[in-house]
Amino acid sequence: MNSFASLRPAHYLWFALLAAGSFLLAYLALRPQPPTEPLAEFKSWQAPLLQPLAEGRLSLAQLVDAAPGELWLQPRLEGPRLLYRAELAENGRTWAVEAELSLTSEQRQSLQQATAAQVADGEVPLGAGLRDELGPQKIAQLLIKPGSALVAEASLLPTFGPPRLRLQLAAGEAWVYPEQGLTIHLAERQLVLLHWLPVARMKAQLKD
Question: 177 with 156: CB under 8 angstroms?
Fold first, then answer.
């Protein structure tokens, strides 16, 4: 008996639908995808924040103007650090900001002596008065983390361009942009952290 004779019209319809579905999936897979939009906030932050930091001239006062926040004292074995923490919100996204103030060894030692009792229990917030007093102090490094909204890897290339270096890490990957003083940390194709340094400092580290 011819096996095709046992096929009903409904079977032919099913095969036709299956073939059409396969062609549709293949077309969607091969169709050019629209380009991912860049993260527009980084363009607006370039002049007031990112360019001055890259040039080593971003001050605490400039950062406070862009993102009001708090100054924190963090104890470390090599001497305390001063960290400024705030949030930046734009284009429906919120970003957590942490900046470390640039301190000389003498300033670090003086700060350690003056606050030895305060830091016994860990990090402590410092008042707005001291934050304003330290306004001219330069920023040594800037960390920016995405808030509640996930930021996909695909949006980073149109924002920052192709990286000079790609480094595989124990957990994820790092994209390095020496000319911008930027290192991008990713995990599972999602942005984890943007780490900015003055360009001269980053290039010195890469030489080492």
Answer: no
Residue 188 lies in a domain: yes
Distance CA 110, CA 79 (A): 10
Residue 202 has pLDDT above 70, yes or no: yes
- 19 within domain boundaries: no
Domain of residue 103: give its range: 40-207
Point out the least confidently predicted range of 21-25, 47-51, 124-128.
Answer: 21-25
* 199 neighbors 205 (Cβ within 8 angstroms): no
What is the mean pLDDT of the segment spanning 139-143? 97
Q: Return the closest-CA partner of residue 198 out of 101, 62, 94, 56.
A: 56
The answer to whether residue 8 scores a pLDDT higher than 60 is no
List the beta bridge partners of residue 125. 72
Q: How many CB atoms neighbour CB 124 within 10 A?
A: 14
160's tokens: 């920052």
Tens of pLDDT, residues 10-26: 555 555 556 655 665 55
Beta-sheet pairing, 182-187 with 190-196:
antiparallel
